[in-house]
Amino acid sequence: MAQQVLDKSINFKGSTITVQQFIQQVKAQQSLQFTFDEEVNAQFTKTVRIRKNTASLKEALDWLASDANIQCRIVNNYAILSMKPAPSQKKQDAAATIPAANEIPAPSTKNLGEVVVTALGIKKSERNIGYAISQLSSKDVSDVPQTNVMNSLAGRVPGVSIRATGSDPGSSVMVTIRGQSSISKDNQPLYVIDGVPVAPAIQNPAQAVDGKQTIDYGSPISDISADDIASITVLKGASAAALYGSRAGSGVILITTKSGAAKKGLGVSFNSTAMFDQAYMFPHFQNEFGSGDWYGTDNTLSTGAWGPKLNNGLKYVQWNSPLDANGKPIPLEWKSFPNRVKDFFRTGQTFTNNIAVSKSGDAGNFRISYANMQNQGIVPNTDMKRDNLTFSGTYHMNKSIHVSTNLAYTNNRSKNRPSAYTESVTMQVYKLTPNVDINALRNYWVPGKEGLQQYNPYSTDDNPYLIAYEETNSYTRNRITGNVQLTFDLRKDLSLMLRTGLDYYALQEDQRRPFSAKRNPKGAYVLENDHFKEQNSDFLLTYKPALENKFKVSVAVGGNRMDQQSQSNQQSTASLTLPGVYNLSNAAAGSIINAQGSSRKRINSLYGMGEVSYDNALFLNLTARNDWSSTLPKANNSYFYPSVSMSAILSDLLNIRWRELSYLKLRANWSQVGSDTDPYSLYNTVPFDTDWGSVKRATISFSQKNSQLKPEIATSYEAGVDASFFNNRVGFNVTWYKTNNRNQIIQVPTTIASGASTMLINAGNIQNSGWEVGLNLVPVHANGFTWKSDVNFTKNTNKVIELTPAVTSYMLGSTDGSNIQYLIKEGTKMGDFYSRSWVKVKEGPYAGQALLNSNGLQQQDADFVKIGNYNPDFMVSFNNNFHYKNFTANFLIDWRQGGQYYSYVAKSLIQDGRTTNTLFGRDKAHGGLEWTDANGVKREDGMIMPGVIANADGSYRPNDVIIDAATYYDNKYWKYYENETYSATYVKLKEVSITYAFGKQVMRKLPFISNLSLSVIGNNLYTWTKANNGYDPEITMSLSSQRYQGVGHWTLPGTRSYGVKLSCNF
């Protein structure tokens, strides 16, 4: 096979071309994948003389070896480039080497000699690196494109947990690398685009004007179009991220965008995707009983669903009963509407189109791209639109001076984003009783009172269509990111890089609430303008001397200045004068509230790195960085972050030439990175409050700042092995790590004599340790059919090693009226959440059973007990690729095992009798007991609470008190949160794609098109959950930060997506 490849003819353009152009021209005519290391990459500007316009690949590779000193080994469809050894070291002339037939492997489980992007955007060969690193290609993120590209990491990167705040395509995504390590920070990684750090990827959901709803306006990282990404690199360990210093405490995600260097000459690419979202994960609603306070009641106007049995041929007065001539409501047929929830949600649509023009020549290259995304959400009247315009270019001013730039402008906007949390549209739809027809609510104004009075089934709730069409949450985010870089080749072995980059966005939010909204009966309006700017300027001086032996040395020194500014200005009113007029001039007198905030931060840094290698098989890497942060006191603002890593290619060092073993690498590292604090944490300030008439007011904080704060310090150890067997048909990588994060910045109680109730201190030690395993297989490669499979396994163990002697328990936060508390104690884990349980018998034959009161009801205990932890026991993903002729199929399975989540939604729906797990006991047919209540009414909805009742003598007897079903479920579920805490285990068919690449017969008829493919794609097509309750455990509501995972709180239902994608190149 290799000989056939080498004999094929190549047509060259130009008499003298660069190495990069040589590779591009060969790739355009041969189906070869070139792999090379950093050494080869550094030779791309060298020239190759073309002896004749048409030559065999073997002849051309001889020219490459002669002129550029680069040898090539053909292995199946791989062209493996490396530098020719010096004559004294030369074992064989490997230029155009042809392996023996029995050595030709199937497609490799990994890209041999793979070049990966590391810290500061430096490209290195995978073999040089002494730490675990994961890199996704453009194909990984664009085959099944996601509106928020961070969703593409799910199931693909060991050690990385991805959780969305909602199922809407524009929802933010929380990314956690190797567990949570910080008590006070949000545990989100640093994001770097083309070498320049950018705004945080997740921001807290905005609080709505009604004080209950929250609105997720999306994160700035979601502004990037998947079609513009060349690669995403995840730096997981502290050694990988150490060069980013105090900003890299939770890892780093490097995003490299596409350039025009990939193809010689002019090129045009076009991608078009249509995706359709379908809500399909709903709570298990019951449709047998309608509105009512308890079974048999005549109060069929109740918001509860404990009323008479539906579909019994009877008629009752209902919420929409018309009035007769005497003004009395007319009974209507008592029937259920089982599709009342599904009928509200529509099929979401997302259409994305991207066109890019690129050109590459001797003087440089460029790429300009435009992308347009238009989304209609599953909630009526919700949408999102995005326009991306990007430019990247490189110009070689001469052989020694090169200038490059990356610029991107994004306009992201929505007329209405869906709300979550209490009073949201999801809550109002889910709380409809089974006898309410959702379609009867579409005309949401009372006739004749349009704009003044809503039409709704319950006086306590809003019409969901009113929320969708009138309670709007619009926004516009304009964002500019980019950098300009100058590279000077001062000598053959010495180069200088200068770079400056900018990330700026302006965000305008607009919230509107109409008259008769339950929490804003006189309407409300909020207008907020936020601005964020971050500028980074760098220099890097690199020296790579040429040594006349097997040793190679590379050293570099550099520096960075980061300036960050943010500003917020909000004006709001909770009372309008005229309905439907949304501007501040329509605010009722004295109702306008102004709120402003701003912050500034600067970090100055110097860093250095060095690498020593022996025989391209043994590598030692050292890095060091010193940061000076403006958020820390002068006495403590200078901190040093070192790292050391080693890698050894044992298969080369020991000259192993076993047919079974293709590659064996050992790696290990140690490092320290840090994390500073937020601005203005050193000294107390007195912010001004809203004026009280003519009197100026200010707010005194009872939280004492600390002028002696130090940064958090994470010390990390890591070791691993990478191996491949049977000519790379089987490969695996195993990584063990341990990280201790000390000097946590936390609030602790202090004496009232200090004038404050709490103060900031450095304390605590949080440890994360774990294993990451990757298995890469090519199980089948025969008769034109290839099956490649990747399996990833992640297990992280978290432990609170210590807090501080004065604090034995620390509350990170709480939710649901402080009934759910996130607590940490020494010896426990981050992610534990606690609540009060019911009183239990402590000893004797009934030990552990519920101790009920004389009415047969549970009693709440005073102490908080652990009821769950939202972190998984382990995560596994299974990614498969099948290729046969022109067809390629991919599917990704994501398995998350263990962990728990609390569902406020389940608690509310059960208490109101809306779900199927409240059917038992409602009547005799459902297991209810016959009994007579205190009013002498004979009923058959009796139930007995499990437990015992205390006798007068201190002994206990089994409970025999009969209570009605509504009281039973209310008592069992409303106060006792462990009953609504469920397993978070799930298995998802995360991604599916089937692609057909049109063959030569079609391409001959379309000579202007070089590649054309059509794909059928899907996302989250199937979900299995251990809890089997209709809730998606992957979607959690982050109330204020990463600390509040594991809370199901009126988010949108889980969705599945399916669609098509067309790709072509010209």
Automatic annotation (TrEMBL):
Gene Ontology molecular-function annotations: siderophore uptake transmembrane transporter activity
Q: Which domain of life is it from?
A: Bacteria
User: SUPFAM superfamilies recorded for this chain?
Assistant: Porins (SSF56935)
Which part of the chain is the TonB-dependent receptor plug domain? 127-252
Annotated protein name in UniProt: TonB-linked SusC/RagA family outer membrane protein
Record has Mitochondrion as a keyword: no
Principal place of residence? membrane
One GO term (biological process): siderophore transmembrane transport
Native organism: Chitinophaga skermanii
